[in-house]
Amino acid sequence: MTEITLDKLNSVYTERMICVCLLAKLSQRLGYEVVVRPAKEAEWAVIYIQLPEGQLSWHISDHDMHLFESFPISENAQWDGTWNGRNPEFVKGITV
Q1: Which residues 6+ apart lie within 8 Å of 31 measured at CB?
Q2: Chain centre to alpha carbon of residue 60
Q3: Which pLDDT score is estimated for 63?
Q4: Using one digit for the tens of pLDDT, what is the confidence trace for 22-56?
Q5: Fewer CB near the terminus (10 Å): N or C of the chain?
């Protein structure tokens, strides 16, 4: 069994966040609202992408925050209650 190190886990997480950053930039370019809520106390920062079909959001670690410096900051941005385990049917329904 292969041991997963913290460095490897962080590397995979950073790769994921690079994809999220690209998605956010493309969404912003298409005119959709994209904002970052900065970290608060023990909470991580969060990026929110508001599509017509619903909100997408991801937590951002301090290590990856530099990827998101170009996006607007909103202290008031809030999660709209959607769950992050969206199913494939949701993705198929996105019209962008």
Answers
A1: none
A2: 7
A3: 92
A4: 999 999 999 999 999 999 887 899 999 999 888 89
A5: N
Q: Does the structure show a pLDDT above 90 at 75?
A: yes
Tokens of 61: 């670690």
- End-to-end CA gap in the chain: 41
Determine contact, residues 18/67, Cβ cutoff 8 Å. Answer: yes
DSSP for 56-70 reads EEEEE-GGGGGGGTT
Q: What is the pTM of this model?
A: 0.86
Burial class (CB in 10 A: 0-12, 13-18, 19+), 9: exposed
23 SS3 class: helix
Please count the CA atoms within 13 angstroms of the CA of 22 that sit on its side-chain side. Answer: 6
